[in-house]
Amino acid sequence: MPETALPGRRGQAARNDVVILDAARQVFLVDPKAPISHVAERAGVGISALYRRYPSKEVLLCRLCHDGLRTYISEAEAAADEPDGWAALTGFLGRVVDADVHSLTVHLAGTFTPTPDMGADAQRANQLTRDLVERARESGRLRHDAVAEDLGMVLECCAAIRVDDQERTAQLRRRYLALLVEGLAAGGPDLPGPPPRPGEMNGRWRPS
Q1: Residues whose CB is less than 8 angstroms from the CB of residue 28 and which lie 6 or more positions away in sequence, other chains included
Q2: pLDDT for position 197
Q3: Tens-place pLDDT, residues 166-194
Q4: Within a 10 A sphere around the Cβ of 17, how many other Cβ atoms?
């Protein structure tokens, strides 16, 4: 039985959680410094109901980003079942862009202290990404100078695209992902400058 289908008070709490998390994504995507009371107001729940689920804003921010990380891992694991390495990589990128994983996680970098569980999942995500890149390279379709760290930048570029209309945002993100994927394909001139070093972008996750 899905958690939101539970009867009674447990079911109501689960439904509140879904509403709270959706409201928090909307609020903090606009303003990461917004007070947690804005989340309660948008969700239509009392502040006490919110605090019962999330005792602090930092806990709520951590949950939002960890959910995004888990989505990323789930999509990368699904891509591992695709026998074609290039199709696995490009299909993975498309699904992560559609899931809008990076808009919020990058926006919230430095606003909370990642938990040990998040650190472990981040390592898992990094390994899965490296595996996808290696398989795509073995297929002969990926350019020789692309590295796993480049994928994060590609996904962030797509996540930065946002207009008032949600459907139009999705269309534009898919358009520019297609252009970026063409840049990842083998056969073009060498890329200028060195790629991101492993861990080079991690500094932004330190609380400011």
Answers
A1: 34, 39, 61, 64, 104, 107, 108
A2: 86
A3: 999 999 999 999 999 999 999 989 999 89
A4: 20
